[in-house]
Amino acid sequence: MKDIKLLNLSAICQKMNTTPYRWKLVKNTFASKEYAKNLLDTFPKEGFKRFQRDTGSKRHYFYGRCLIDNYVENASVHKVDSLSNIWNDLIHELLSDTYRKLMSKTSEISLDGLRIEITCWRHLYGCFIDPHPDKPEKVLTHLFYFNQEDWKSTDGGCLRILRNSDIENYTDEILPLINTSVFFVRSDNSWHGTKPISIPNRARLALQVVFHKENMHYTTGYK
């Protein structure tokens, strides 16, 4: 499809897992390794804000930068001057009608009329996210990873697909490796989380795309 060059649509559109909820691991997310490497090499470095919650539900600590906030379907897309050309191309693809329809078909849920938020994450030493199922306003989340292939499970920061609120009760653990992505449909039991990053001087790099309802509190305020 002419509006999609970077994303590997055939890899993304495979059947989803249904246990313990609907989710899908995608390998070879991008159409070539060169695309993935260029995205890694130019991953945003500036403009990140620290998010931290030490008490209550969903304790967390990480750094984020919102690239697209509350995007309305079919609205015009403007270039983000601080991003490389390939990152701007990726954003255009993620906001395209082609990508929306593909994710809707694969997840078997309607994404018509939903807003889109796109955020970059940097998880540094000690960063983590407690188990949580996501707020009801979120409908579908797609996470793209950009770490070198030598990242190990013991380094922390791996997404765990959980059976419940116990971080150790997981069915799968996803390494945050370059050219890998994972998406899932939000439900009351869509528990997931990450253990703390255990290695200094390295960062877990990720891009998050969220299809959400209009009344969601956005990452810019992270409520």
Automatic annotation (TrEMBL):
Keyword flag Transit peptide: no
Alphabetically ordered keywords of this record: Dioxygenase, Oxidoreductase
Cofactor: L-ascorbate
Top-level taxon: Bacteria
Recorded GO MF terms: dioxygenase activity; iron ion binding; L-ascorbic acid binding; oxidoreductase activity, acting on paired donors, with incorporation or reduction of molecular oxygen
Domain Prolyl 4-hydroxylase alpha subunit: 21-212
Protein name as it appears in the record: Putative hydroxylase NikM-like protein
Organism for this UniProt entry: Prochloron didemni P3-Solomon
Gene it is expressed from: nkdK
